[in-house]
Structure formats: C-alpha cells, structure tokens
Amino acid sequence: VKVVALAGGIGGARFLRGLRAAVPDAEVSVIVNTGDDITLYGLRICPDLDTVMYTLGGGIDEERGWGRTDETFTTRSELQAYDAPASWFGLGDRDLATHLMRRQMLDAGFPLSQVTAALCERWRPGMRLLPMSDDRVETHVVVDDPQTGRSRAIHFQEWWVRHGAALPASAILAVGAETAAPGPGVLDAIGAADVVVLPPSNPVVSIGTVLQVDGVRAALAAKPVVGLSPIIGGAPVRGMADACLAAVGVQTSAQAVGRHYGARSAGGLLDGWLVDSSDAGVTVPGVEVRAVPLLMSDLAATAAMATAALELVLG
Amino acid sequence: VKVVALAGGIGGARFLRGLRAAVPDAEVSVIVNTGDDITLYGLRICPDLDTVMYTLGGGIDEERGWGRTDETFTTRSELQAYDAPASWFGLGDRDLATHLMRRQMLDAGFPLSQVTAALCERWRPGMRLLPMSDDRVETHVVVDDPQTGRSRAIHFQEWWVRHGAALPASAILAVGAETAAPGPGVLDAIGAADVVVLPPSNPVVSIGTVLQVDGVRAALAAKPVVGLSPIIGGAPVRGMADACLAAVGVQTSAQAVGRHYGARSAGGLLDGWLVDSSDAGVTVPGVEVRAVPLLMSDLAATAAMATAALELVLG
Description:
The structure is a homodimer of 315-residue chains. In chain A, a hairpin with a 2-residue loop joins β11 and β12. The first copy, chain A, contains twelve helices and 14 strands. In chain A, 36% of the residues lie in helices and 20% in strands. Chain A is of the alpha/beta class. In chain A, strands 5-2-1-9-10-13-14 form a seven-stranded parallel beta sheet, with helices on both faces. The A-B interface holds A 40-43, 68, 72, 74-76, 78-79, 81-85, 93-94, 96-98, 100-101, 103-104, 106-107, 119, 122 and B 40-43, 68, 72, 74-76, 78-79, 81-85, 93-94, 96-98, 100-101, 103-104, 106-107, 119, 122.
C-alpha cells in the first residue's frame, strides 16, 4: 500500500512512528510543513522536518518531544552571554550539527529536498520525507501589541516559543505560500498514493500550511483522505493548537476541526474522520466519523490508531 | 604612549597580554591577521581575531592556546556522525556561539570590523582589535600531491590543522590581499602610533599577511618599528613556523627572520630586533639587535619582553 501523510512536528512525528509499526511494508511519503522554519544566526532551522527525522530515526528526546536525546545547551548559554536576540530559541549542541550540515549543503546549491534526503541517510527514518516546498514559506502571526495598541506580524516561532502562544493572534499568515512551488516528489507522491492521512497535527499551522502550497489541495481531491483529530474533549492533546484555531475562528473541538477540514465530496478534504472515544457522537456532514482511543500513549496504541485510520477509508 | 601591534594567533595574543601588563596606560591598537579565516558550514571563523579576543578577555583555554576554556565538543562529534567534510576542524560548543553571533551580524550588513567591536563589548580586551581588512583575504598553501605529483592549493587551515603542516609547501598565497582595503582605523592607528611592535607571531602567515594589505607597509615606513623573534635557537617557540619559512625560502633562525623583515632604513621594516638570550650575536644590518629572554613562560616574563621591546626603539 502507498500512503501519503501530511505532517507537522511532535504529534505528526509520533503518529508516523505508529504508522510505520502498523504497516511496515507500506511505502510512505511524508509531506512535511516547512512554514515553521526560521533563520537564526544564518542557519536554516526546520523544526518539523527535524522532529520527524529525529523521531523516526531514534534521535528524538522523548520527554520534550523535540530536539535530540542527551542534548546539551552549551552554545546556547554562550549566546545568552552575548545577549543574542534569539536566545529564547532552544538550540541544542547536538541539534546544531544538523543545522550546520544543512547550511553547508544549501550554500553548495542543493535545494532543501536534497538536503533533507542527505540528512536522512544518517537517520534512516524508514519513509520518504518530502519538504512541502523548496521555496521559502514562513508562517507569521499577527498579534496586537498591548503597549502600542497596534498590530504587528511576528514569526511563528517567536509567537509559539518565546511568547508561548499567549499573545492573542488575529491572523496567521503563510508568507510566501502563494508563490511556493510544491517540492520535488510532492504531487507525484499524492498521485501515486492509495490513501492520504492527516495525522493529529496542528490543523492550522502544520496541516493548514501544507495545504496552501500550490497544487496540493487539488491533488488530494482525487484520493481517499482520512484525518485524525488533534483535539480530544475540547482541548489539544499537546501543544497550543487552540490558540491557532481561535485565530482562524474555529472552535477547539473534534467536530469543529473535522468540519473545518470538510467533506471531500463537498469541496473539502475528508472521507473519514477519526475522533477519540470520548468524542463519540461527533458528526461531519459527508464524512464517515469513527470514535476510537486517540491517545498516543505508547507505540502499540499509536499503531492501533494508524490501523483504524487506514481501515476507515480503505475498508 | 600609543602603540600599534600586528598580530596573529597564539604567540601574538600571549605577547599582547604581557604588553598590556607592561604599559597598562598605553593606547594599544592591534591589527589582526584575517588571512587564516575560513568559512565552514556557512560560518565565518576568524581564528586569530578570536584567539586574541579570548586571550585578552580571559576566555582562552590556556593549555591549548586556542579556543574557549571549559570547552566541549558535542556539536563536533555530531558533525562527525554526519561525515561532515570539515570535521577535522576543532569547533567547540562555546566557541560556536561567537561564530553564530558573527554570522548574524555579517548577515545584517555589518562589516567584520564592526562585528569585532561588538563581540569585544563582551570580552573587553583592553585594547582595540582591528581586523587587517573587512575584505575577504584567504591564505592558501600550494602543496605537491604525492599521489598525482601535481601541485594544488589548499586552504591554510586545511594545511595547518588537518595535515599538521606536514605536506611540503612550495608557496603560500594570500588570496585577495592584492585588492583588500585596510580595515577602518588601520592606517589611522599606524599614523597616530608612537611605536609599532611585531610580536613573536608567525612572520609568514600572520605578520606577513597583514603586511600585504594595501598601505600598511607604506604607513609603517614612517614609524619606529620593533620586532620580537618567534624563533629561538633555530626552532619556533611554538607552532610550525619553520614549515612556513621554508615555503618562502627563509631559514628558521632569529637572524634569518630579522633579515627577512629587514632594516627600515633600507626599505625593510625594523628599527629594533629582539632575540632570545641564547641567540646573542645575531646581526641584522641597519637594525639594533638586543638579546633578552624571550620565553613567554608567565605574565611577568612576557611583560618584561614587551618592556624591552619598547625600550629598544623608544629609549
């Protein structure tokens, strides 16, 4: 079976580990959000690509969910001693090597997709990681400055990491998305897929950003698509998806997110929508909804979620 | 008293610490070699500037002579795990923060001279560090490839660090020096100086490279210049200066290096030449030579060298 998954960071990465366990022989291509990417100190940092790569490659810090295992933060403490403007960002010493390698290869002229493939030669994730685009797309968040009363756009990472998504957001913009070409292999992978899965990633800044890349939505319209709710019982399982949903006027509920994605038959995305057992009763017009346990508490539970998702649309 | 010193890395930096102790009220400007600079992973690494900055700022590893105290090499071990092509270069985790800050400021449009001044706000070296040029100059070494029998040019750092200067060099080239403009303040500092000191730095790749920057030699011709021999008893005090001297056809002796610099009155550089007590008897036509202990064994000994150097030409 050929599977395409769209992915953001922690939630998506953990789900993919379950998917790999559920269907080890499947040919899986992951289209990864790059809108969270940020350039710091001249380094291109790709949080979602790296989280997926480290998680599938066995290098992730399981507790934090992001960054490397056995990480140290020596460089960061020195950056703080320099009063570096971006020392709020958690750059680990091990993680830095990935960004340095990426910088070296980008400077040598390789596009992000080839850089990602080269990095994956070390990590061997067991599936193909495709950046959604080799072009630069950056998610910016429009916030109101409480001091001046005026709104300004800040980088998603600044909003998410530095401010803990606590500044009310009035809009979330994927800057550059309107001209970004899909990365090499992205549309082909969708075209060849038997099924497309939307993991329980952030529906706005992860999945939503991938969907803004030219041609992705149109390609999905020809394929069975199943999604897993990142919201359980009215709250995000992890992260601060509620703040993102609020910014786009969507309630924080499994039903609202399912309806936000919408039915493929009605111009939306979904054929199937998996919600948590506690959200049984959710309806999304035109979409087959099933309730199963959606907590990724361990690999077996996560694999069961992946199996349920595939079964919902492939039968 | 206003002093200008030309400097390379370890030897120059240690001497400057003695100079600061000898004449704490002097206004010292250091023109630092940037020919050793190398770009790795997109980061501009300035070994001589950083060695001088860390040494004067109390951040140097005293044992190694380069890099930061209490250094760790976590990022480097990860780069090796990626089979990074330049993992032979000793990039420490603390040191990396300096290169990241420099990259950030260079990307923001500041020239190296301003970046250096900003970094020195943290390190407070007690003297003004002036990169010899804001333009890119890179020292390359022409070596014979024993496999092919053909010669090729490699970056100085590759020759020095990776190969330990063990590949015989047929030429040493400061690529870019012929068009490099002196850094802001360089010629003014020389013009205002009461005396110019050439520390016991490498006469070829450190002092020699600074001298190739347009206008520096001409400016020195108007000032009393005193040099300290980096060679004691026919061997470099530290480092592999002999390999560099061989490449330019100069013997490894205090006398040969003094004559290589030459007398200012005869179109060379020197008014005074300080050699080690063990080299008493050395003569350089037209130059006042004095023999004193030249081992920088501790701060007091180094300060005494600096005092002797200034006395030799200022009386």
